């Protein structure tokens, strides 16, 4: 039995965790800023003590990649300072902290899937603050599990799939970047992986950094084409280069994650990204 605190529970992953739930033997507290402000150390400590929490799953994050370049203070507050608060409380109270991180901690210069031992090298504020959050956990000496993921989407919240479907109803064609490679991740698949980890009675023995995304490799352009195909949308997708579609933040050209470690440690089966996009669109 576990008492679980899920932070950022109104976001994509938090909402999926809420939907699938945990073991009937576990008590889960799904919170957002109104119930537990993780940027406030005292509030976190009080909540954890009051509810006898033994596992914290941090789904809260500042994820507006381009906006982070201008909103450095808020991105730092949520992605670094709040994570440090959770880690300090976890260390003090003997909790396991499961923290969600990102492929943006890498610069995207590799050409083969990123393993957990490759040294991170973020290029933008978002990636730098997420890596600093990881560092705060490692510094705290708490029991921890950092799970890096990529290209997250869900039936909840705003994401690439929903944006493509909306634009397809407004336009006859769209231009989408074709030279950035990665893997879409259905938030429900990640939520189920976390639930599997929570069912492992020896999970603390497996603490460390892990990578999780769905299986396969594609470009954003490939992703968009598959969305249109599955949703039966008559919208033409035109491939463009990153240079033709400039953004405030440099995106990783290659951010495929190697999932070998998490699959072996927890005997997790991961679906292909196309299967999961199909499932998500059917749910919509």
Query: What top-tier CATH class fits best?
Result: Alpha Beta
Name given to the CATH homologous superfamily: NAD(P)-binding Rossmann-like Domain
- Work out the strand percent: 15-25%
Q: Sheet bearing the most strands, described?
A: 6 strands, parallel
First-to-last CA distance: 34 Å
The H-and-E topology, N to C, reads as EHEHEHEHEEHEEEHEEHEHH
SSE topology:
Elements: E1 3-7, H1 12-20, E2 27-30, H2 41-50, E3 55-58, H3 72-93, E4 96-102, H4 125-140, E5 143-149, E6 152-153, H5 160-170, E7 173-177, E8 181-182, E9 185-186, H6 187-199, E10 208-211, E11 218-219, H7 220-231, E12 236-240, H8 260-266, H9 273-283
Helix pairs in contact: 1-6, 2-3, 3-4, 5-7, 7-9
Structure described in brief:
The protein is an alpha/beta fold and 284 residues long.
Please tell me about this protein's structure.
The chain is an alpha/beta fold and 284 residues long. The protein has a single domain (3-158, 184-216, 254-271), classed as Rossmann fold (3-Layer(aba) Sandwich), CATH 3.40.50. Helix content is 39%, strand content 17%. The protein has helices spanning 12-20, 41-50, 72-93, 125-140, 160-170, 187-199, 220-231, 260-266, 273-283, and strands spanning 3-7, 27-30, 55-58, 96-102, 143-149, 152-153, 173-177, 181-182, 185-186, 208-211, 218-219, 236-240. A six-stranded parallel β-sheet has the order 2-1-3-4-5-10, sandwiched between helices. Helix 4 (125-140) links the parallel strand 4 (96-102) and strand 5 (143-149).
């Amino acid at each position: 039995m576990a008492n679980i605190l899920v932070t950022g529970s109104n976001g994509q992953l938090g909402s999926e965790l809420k939907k699938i739930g945990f073991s009937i033997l576990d008590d889960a507290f799904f919170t957002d800023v109104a119930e537990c402000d993780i940027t406030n150390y005292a509030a976190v400590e009080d909540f954890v003590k009051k509810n006898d929490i033994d596992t914290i799953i941090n789904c809260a994050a500042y994820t507006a990649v381009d906006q982070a370049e201008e909103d450095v203070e808020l991105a730092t507050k949520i992605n670094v300072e709040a994570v440090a608060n959770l880690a300090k409380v976890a260390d003090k109270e003997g909790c396991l902290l499961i923290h969600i991180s990102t492929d943006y901690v890498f610069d995207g210069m590799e050409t083969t899937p990123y393993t957990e031992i490759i040294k991170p090298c973020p290029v933008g504020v978002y990636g730098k603050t997420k890596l600093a959050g990881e560092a705060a956990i490692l510094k705290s000496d708490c029991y921890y599990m950092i799970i890096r993921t990529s290209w997250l989407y869900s039936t909840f919240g705003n994401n690439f799939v929903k944006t493509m479907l909306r634009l397809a109803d407004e336009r006859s064609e769209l231009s989408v970047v074709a030279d950035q490679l990665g893997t879409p991740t259905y938030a429900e698949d990640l939520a189920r992986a976390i639930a599997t980890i929570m069912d492992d009675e020896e999970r603390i023995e497996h603490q460390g950094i892990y990578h999780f995304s769905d299986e396969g490799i594609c470009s954003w352009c490939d992703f968009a084409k598959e969305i249109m195909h599955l949703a039966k949308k008559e919208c033409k997708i035109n491939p463009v280069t990153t240079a033709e579609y400039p953004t405030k933040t440099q995106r990783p050209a290659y951010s495929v994650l190697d999932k070998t470690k998490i699959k072996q440690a927890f005997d997790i089966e991961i679906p292909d990204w196309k299967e999961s996009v199909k499932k998500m669109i059917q749910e919509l």
